[in-house]
Amino acid sequence: MVGMGAIGLGGLGHLMLDAYAEMGDVDLVAGTDVSPKAREAFETGYDAPAYDDYEAMLDDHGEALDAVTIVTPHTLHYEQAMDCLRADLDVLLEKPMVTDVNDAVDLVEAVDERDRVLQVGYQRHFHPGFRELRRIVTSGRIGGVHTVNCYLGQDWIDVQRGTWRTNPDLSGGGQLYDTGSHMLDAMLWTTATTPTSVVAEMEYAKPGVDCNSALGVALDAGDRTATASVGLTGDGVDMTPSEGYVVWGTHGQVSYSDDRLVVAEGGQTTAVTTVTADTDFGTLTKAKLVNFVDAVQGEDDPAVPAEYGLQVTALTEAAYEADETGRRVDVTAMLDAAREAK
Fold this sequence. Notes:
By secondary structure, the chain is an alpha/beta fold. 39% of the residues lie in helices and 29% in strands.
């Protein structure tokens, strides 16, 4: 039985709690939230105590806790996750892992030193379409990756105005650190690449809150350098969310959008696959929670370990610097400097 604590009891946090409550091997020990209504709903719904201070929860229930789920504003992640790791707890940390490269390096090192599980909440790793895209690319079917294009568009800014997501003190930025973080993770994971440098052009809805971004990224693809173009728009009018990926290899290409994968080789379409499995948010959320609980129990590896969060954080921070300075930023050097500073 896994003794689970919850830091953040709002919308997504509540969805996760419902999923945990359905698992026979999870005991919801206690929760934390700054909202009195959220705390009251937690205590009523799950018959467990709720706190307004996560440190008090750790102090009062440390012996009963094995793991903690953190669903809070982005800039709070580092301190909360580090305190939980220091308490020898495993952590499921919603995306983005953190909003500072030095903090990301700290967490990765703490996980290694303490032999703990830290899983980042990127649910595309559990999506059958994205899994198949990664399988095709990493199988070598289209040859070595040399070019990637991805885009994501939604009416983000109109929906988020007035929320913490448009307060950079809590969000760390704008849409690039919100939905864009999912896209950057998916691009790197499905192509099995790491970012080495980036140029960027961004538009801001208000100071510190980006809503449109165009990135040019150099990727380490193992035996070669690949190039990627990333387009992200969050300033649409009644825009239905749309997302797509194209990966060109030395022997062919594969594209994925709208639950449809198309493989082309030798100038001809050779395979078309339509994803028919359930891919709704609730299903994918439950899948990542099951994986986390299995990892805590030593029955599986975490599907999204801290290293993925580190790479996405480094690329995101480098993109903001590239936009601010108008020059290409070396992501590898940024990571090296952060590691050397420890």
